[in-house]
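pasting for the record
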Amino acid sequence: MSESRATVVMIGSKPAQSERRVVVDRRGPVSNETHGPDFAFLANSIPQLVWTSDADGFCDYFNQRWFDYTGTTFEQSAGNGWQYTIHPEDLDAVSHAWKQANRTGQECVVEHRLRHRSGEYRWNLMKAMPMRTTDGAIVRWFGTCTDIQEQKDAASLQQQRTREVAKAKVRSHLAHEINNPLNATMNLLYLAQIFPERAHGFVEAAETEVQKIADITRRILAEK
């Protein structure tokens, strides 16, 4: 799993936090029946994790897939308790990203790591859309989280393969650069043996080729 950090939008800007310490606010509904059975049926019919929050960003609904995925309960997740499922390294970025989204009121589309019930943090794509009144005021947020760990792993594997191909090309190029003066050196030394009267000139030429090899080696070491 990738260890890089991602900018994450955290729904809820009021709780104060320092690193992993989160002040949990579970105000509002104490059940998961905010929207009624029709909405719950629809939310549970799609493969994503579905959640909603009030205008201030405090969550009041999660579909069943959320609980199955995270292993949490509604009481643990409601309000901003769901923040405990976000990777610790993403929490600082979460607050900043949410403030920006809250200012603009635009749709939030972000990637972040979410703790699976197994304890593994898996990459998710979160999308949050604000619901507005006729005068433009935000009254609610509707959001989904989609597990994209397999796509992340595939991208990482492709990047690794790309790097390996690039390294192979570099090695091939260097081998060509070194082999040319190396072969020339061997040929010159051979000629020095069979034409002793001209050995001095052949040896000097061979030394020049050896110097080329030394220059290539120094360049390689300097690039590491």
